Amino acid sequence: MERDIEQYLALCAKKIGGKSFKWTSPGVTGVPDRIVFLPDGQVVFVEVKDHTGKLTPRQAEVHKQLSRLGHPPYTVYGVDGVKRFFGRYGYEV
User: Which residues contact 38 (CB under 8 A, 6 or more apart)?
Assistant: First the structure.
C-alpha cells in the first residue's frame, strides 16, 4: 500500500538525518505526497506510488508546474523506488 511506502520513505529520511513531511494543500489537488528535506540542504517533492501506480492527469499537471519553477518532483514506485530515490542523492538506505 502507498501508506506503507510513505512510512518507509519517512523512516529512511530519518535514518540519514533528514525529514519527510506529508504535504497537503487545501484547495489544490494533485500535489506530491511528501516534501523530503535531505541533510545536505536539498528539498525534494516526492510522489509515492505502489509498483503498479500511475500519476493522475492532475498530478502530472502539478508536476509540470513545479518543474517549470525549478522544483521537479520525484515519483517513487514501491520500496525499491524509495531506495533508488535516496541512492540518486548519494544516500544508502
Answer: 13, 16, 18, 44, 89, 91
Calculate the CA 93 to chain-centre distance: 15
Q: Which CATH number fits domain 2-88: 3.30.70.260, 3.30.450.90, 2.40.10.220, 3.40.1350.10?
A: 3.40.1350.10
DSSP H stretches of helix in the chain: 2-15, 57-68, 78-88
Q: Which residue has the cell 518532483?
A: 73
Q: How confident is the model at residue 1 (pLDDT cuts 50, 70, 90)?
A: confident
Is the pTM above the cut of 0.90? yes
